[in-house]
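Hi F.,

I've been meaning to write this up properly since the lab meeting, where we talked about keeping a consistent format for the predictions we share between groups. The idea is simple: the sequence comes first, exactly as it goes in, then the structure tokens exactly as they come out, then a line or two of notes. No screenshots and no reformatting. I'm using this chain as the first example so we have something concrete to point to.
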Amino acid sequence: MQKNEEENDTMPICSCCDNSSKEEKNSFWKKSILIMITGAVLLFTGFCVDFFTGQELLAEILFLAVVVVAGYEIVEEAIIGLMNKKFNMNLLMIIAAAGAFMIGHGEEGATVILLFFVAEFLEEYAGERARKSVASLLELAPKTAVVQRNSKNLEVHAHEVESGEIVVVKPGDKIPLDGMVFKGVSSVNQAPITGESFPVPKSEGNEVFAGTLNLEGYLEVKVTKKSDETILSRIVELVKESQKKKSHIEVFIDRFAGYYTPTVILLAVAVAIIPPFLLGLSFDEWFYRALVLLVVSCPCALVISTPVSMVSAITSSTKNGVLIKGAQYVEEMKNLEVMVFDKTGTLTEGKMEVTDIKPLNSYSEDEILQVAASLESRSKHPIAEPILRKAEDKNVDLKNVSKFKSIAGKGLKGVIDGETFYAGQKSLFRCEVPEDMIRELEESGKTGVLIGSENSIMGVVGLMDKIRDDAANTIKNLKSQGMKTVMLTGDNESTAKAVSSSIGIDRYYAGLLPENKLEILEDLMTDHKHVGMVGDGVNDAPALARASTGIAMGAVGSDVAIETADVALMHDDLSKLNYLFKLSDKTMSVVKQNTTVSILIKGSFAVLAVFGFITLWMAVGIGDMGLSLAVILNSLRIGNKDAVQV
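Output, unedited:
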């Protein structure tokens, strides 16, 4: 449907078409990368000029250019902080850089400013990752809907559809809005919203959700919620709110700088003024000591002691198939008290397998499997693949099927060797069905598919989502560390109970929608401060975003889950959770070592500088650059092959 420019200008932004951040993102990348490249080139050129030509003035001009290019926004933030009576890290970096220039070490000042700009860029990059996860969510729902108006089917923008209108959904199309089936029968893949293993049969009166996929039949859906009120739009808002709660946590170093910066400044001023004016001592000598104090007090080693360790840990984890998206999550893993798991695709593989073939009326397992696989060979239903795979494993030959028919929401029908056979739910059959056998399978968390003719049931094929091989051992390891385990799932009670019992989960919750998962997670976080979440689907995104640490199953996980989570297991290996805890312990131990040594040496050098025992080259070579190098080398140990024993 075409619209004129005026209509486009006034069109409201809905949950499925908000792309306003793309231009800002491109502009941010281009500007930041240009600044970093320009700053690095100027800094390198300055070092070369100073070392090879000895032209100190030209070198200082190049170093000053680095500050102008990379430090503009840092100076601006420092000034804004001062106007608001806040002494932030930006101010300390500017003063330290200025002090370095004043005592003839412009290369030190330029390096500090450029590195600090890179740190700020990485923080902004993390925020961009969060925005990208929301953008991926927005793409799930169709932007348009086919609505019945005045006896015609019109394609309109989804946000123009009102509650109570009828929308048409053809086979293979996504459902554009939440509603109730008004007409038609089909199966709908609701995994993106509820995480259910199997497609769900839908007929008149059943509820459907925006962003889910209509598989087989034609549906007419009566809209019950507008585009900004759907379950999917609520997921988007939940993710945004959860990420907002995380982003408000203050970084410790900024709080520290609030006290450290004014203390160092006042102390340096006192050293420069009090001895000359009150005691009549040499102003040049004590001003020099004050500048040395500023340089030695520049908290470079202290500032990098944590991030360098974290970068080493993150690099090491990446080599081990684990993507950690921020330093805070390395630390948080050590503190987790409860680990919450999604079921489908996380504890299970999200892939069905045939677990049982139960014969009736003297039929053999191979006969039942032959009929089931022959019918399923004509179907595109998700159940078909595991049944065909089972037939292939058992070398069962398929038979020719004629007059094949897929009965939406019920099952399959076809003629084999002149006789009509069925595969599907009990509603397909007119004869007596084995209710006890079906109930037994369901209580074990399995789905039963009846196989039979018009007159009798041949048997039942039981299927179940395969539990991951390493799931039980992973849960055992977590519990041995005193951690509680919880499973959340959109599947039914019997399936949830069967899975949780088989792998040793402490507690489970079944039949959940995305907001239910988030509510339960927040309840757990009320009782336990540090709660982790492992999931793979869109429906897990709000909980992953809200958890202390959200962990996504990377290879099979949805883009939204991977983007929203703080950690991604790229090989879908649950055993890597144990590795993560070991890595966290090792990393935090190194951080404490670095921080303690930095504070002790910086403090000692500051005292010695006041009394004139520290020269400029000692302040720069040992108290700053030397200490920074020691911190870096200690941090690199985290990445050693044998540093983290699992």
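Notes:
The two ends are 59 Å apart (CA to CA).
The CA atoms of residues 17 and 143 lie 7 Å apart.

If this format works for you, I'll send the rest the same way.

G.
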